[in-house]
């Protein structure tokens, strides 16, 4: 994903030189070299530039996966631009590339961490503009990561180092975001308007779910209410029109179904002819056979298999689906979405079980052979317990001795390090590659990892800092680890743009620039030979 082809700097340099010649002496203070450097450090001018660029990346990655299922993609959910920036800097450092690595924007985290109402549950109660705002913020931070790294390279070039090839072939931190639009925040017009804002902010992929917008629940909670297919298709269309209007022809739509865990519907669609989508949806509704003399005024009746039936309706007006229809509903949802404009699927499941996911996806593939899944490797699952249980059951089926384990207490720490634990951990380690190979999972994501890591790290720091360790808790547990591991923000002034700003001031003011990077800048304490060697070792 090298987006800075050789010659981009020279092209910008020539452009500014021509402009200087055009505007004459009034531009004498403008340095073509400085202007070209700044232009090179800010390749993406708008969110739409980003959306178009990243959409093409996703389309290529989807084709790569179709050819080879080992070429799956991954992302982590981020709730702040800085978190996303540090993630992608770390990805580049450890993997030497951002290829096949995305970002995920979770509606759950927007609700819990970004709303002006304060922390909220995942029920679409937060401001819809907060979603697009977070996308814009993330890309601002990623663009800054580009500018800072390139600025360092230009400084090294000016100091005589041969880094021109690194500049010419610089790989951007800009990667695709799969952005959660929940259930669309209203009717299809509301969905279209919000989708436009998200795309203009840079989103190339929008994930939308088939729940009722004003009754939306987190996919891992009870009380979910789904909509008829016709309603969901209208919202898929709304998102596609938004992409097309803004010129993002490769825009990706991820259609999520919550039907596996949803037992209710708010609306009974109108069937126009036998066997149509509305009719298939109505067939899933739980009904009881009645005669006319059993029916009271204002009740809703259906004809099913030549009989008069009454849909089971709750006191709140919602209708129930028949027990045991959830998987059939999932499959129909997926096939219908793919046949009506969706590019990728998302199936919410109760547990992370490759076999169970594959059973659903393979049924979809019977109709749409290239069906691909975005899968939520959710922190809502107890991964340890789920996989220990799976291994325990497999051991029983294979006739192995499980007398040393209590199936009802497999989370007990006494099993850590046991044969069962080691097998379960290995299944967790290979879950993503297994799911990509066996269950059609193109993209693996963790929705809320940085929510949990923030809480965990703050717990550990607070325990030591406010306890007996005092300042050593921070120095040993944070700063020394940053130095040893080469974490970029150990020099937080540089990461916030101080060095970049100093160079800009020099461009603007020359020798009159008041710069922060002088001898009294305490960040220089991190420039010792030992520190540089440790960082170099950590990044090799």
UniProtKB/TrEMBL annotation:
Biased composition (Polar residues): 519-528
Disordered: region residues: 518-540
SUPFAM superfamilies hit by this protein: Phosphoenolpyruvate/pyruvate domain
Keyword annotations of the record: Lyase
One Gene Ontology MF term: isocitrate lyase activity
Pfam families xref list: ICL
InterPro entries documented for this protein: ICL/PEPM, Isocitrate_lyase, Pyrv/PenolPyrv_kinase-like_dom, Pyrv_kinase-like_dom_sf
Catalytic activity: D-threo-isocitrate = glyoxylate + succinate
Recorded superkingdom: Bacteria
Protein name, UniProt field: Isocitrate lyase
Organism this protein belongs to: Tenacibaculum platacis
